[in-house]
Amino acid sequence: MTPVELSRTVLRAVRCAVDEGELSVAVPVRAVVTPPGAGGCGDYATNIALQLARPAGRPPRQVAEILRPHLSRTAGVAGVEITGPGFLNIHLEAATATVALVREILDGRTNGHANGHANGHAIDSGHDSHGSHEGHSSHESQRAPYGHTPTLTGQVIPLRIPYDIRAEVVADSLVRIVATQGGRAEVGHVRAGEAVTLRPVPAPEDPAPLGADAARWALLHPAAHDRPRITADHLAQRESNPLFRVRYAHARARALTRCAARLGFHGEPGDVPGDVPGAEVLVRELAGYPHALSAAAAQHAPDRLARHLVATADAFLAFQPTVLPLGDEKPSAAHRARLALAEAAGTVLAGGLSLLGISAPDYL
Q1: Contact present, 114 and 108 (Cβ < 8 Å)
Q2: Helix (H/G/I), strand (E/B), else coil: 345
Q3: What tens digit of pLDDT does each residue of 224-251 get?
Q4: pLDDT tens digit string along 259-296?
Q5: Side-chain half-sphere CA neighbours of 102 within 13 A
C-alpha cells in the first residue's frame, strides 16, 4: 500500500465511522500520511484524529480509537497503534507495502520528471520574467509521477527575490517543486516597495566555473541560512562528495537494468525481505520521498529534497550488491524483485535531480 492509497484508506475509515454514526463530521478531502516522526512507530502515521477532534466535539485520542478498528480491518494493514495526543501509527504487511510502493514509482516513470532522464538547466536565469510552471499537459497519462500530489492545487505562490545568483537558482528549482504539489510559483525580482520573500545567503563567489550541475548543487544542497561552499570538492568523483554519490547511485541503477537484460531477466515488483542488506532502509527512504517533496514546496527549501536524495542514494548503494545473481546462480523471483526495487530507486533519484535542474547520466 502506497502513501496515496493509504491516504484514501484513512478517508474511507472516516467515512465508515460517519456512516455508522460513530462520528458526526464532514469527511475531509485529503488525509495527510507521512513516515512517523519522533516517538512514532510503524510504517506511516496520520494526524487525521487531531484534525477531526474539534468538529467532532471529542478528544483526539477518542477519535483515534473510533478510527483504529476501521483501519485495522483494511487488507494490507498489519496493525494500528495510537501515540501521543492521537496520532494513528499504521503498520503495513511488509510484502504488500514494498510491492505497492515499487509499482507506484515505476508506473509513474513515463510522466513528467520521473522519467529517469533529468534535463540540465542553465546556472543563470538572470532576467525578471521567470514565468511559472503550469503542471502537466492534458495529453499526458492521468497517473501522476510518484510524489506528486494536489496539496497546493489552485495556490499561486509569489517568490520575490533579489538580484543574486543563488536566489535565482533556488527560485528556479522551487518553480518545479511547487508544481509537483499542484501549485504555481511566480518568480520576479524585487521592485521598489516590495518585500523580499526568498533571500538565501549569497554565495561567496561565482559558482559558474564549477559547471552547471555542480554549481546548482553547491547552491541548493545547503539550507538557505547557510553560506554555500564554492569549491572543486563538488567535482570530485569520490565518496565524500554527496552529488557524486547521488548521480553514481542513479547510474548504478541503470547499469543493473542493462546487466540483468544481458542475463535474460527484468525487474518485477515483489517481496524484498527486510533482512536483505540495505533493503529496509531503501524502502523507507523511497516511501519518504513524497513527504520530502511536499516539505520542500511548503518551506521553500529545495535543500530538503537534496538531502533526501543523498539519503536515498546511500541506502541504494548499500543495497545494490544484492541485486544480480552471483557466480553460477540463476536469476530468480527474488532477483527480479530486487531489480525492480533498484529501478524504483533510480527513478526517484532521476526525478529528484531533475527538479533541482541537475542531470542524471546513465553512465558515470
Answers
A1: yes
A2: helix
A3: 999 999 999 999 999 999 999 999 999 9
A4: 999 999 999 999 898 789 999 899 989 989 999 999 99
A5: 25
Q: How many CB atoms lie within 10 A of CB 38?
A: 5
Q: Amino acid letter at 334?
A: A
Amino acid at 275: D
Angle at 221 between CA 37 and CA 343, to 5 degrees: 70
60 to 56, 79, 241, 320: CA distances (angstroms): 9, 19, 45, 43
The three-state secondary structure class of 160 is strand
- 330: amino acid identity, one letter: K
Query: What is the chain's length?
Result: 364
Q: Are 247 and 211 in contact (CB under 8 A)?
A: no
CB within 8 Å of 258: residues ≥ 6 apart: none
Find the angle CA(141)-CA(142)-CA(148) to the nearest 5 degrees: 105
Strands 44-46 and 77-83: unpaired
Kindly state the cell numbers that stand for 184.
504555481
How many Cβ atoms are within 10 Å of 54's Cβ, its own excluded?
11
The cell numbers describing 305, all together, are 529534497
State how beta strands 87-92 and 184-189 pair.
unpaired
Give CA–CA dist 343/345, Å, rounded. Answer: 5
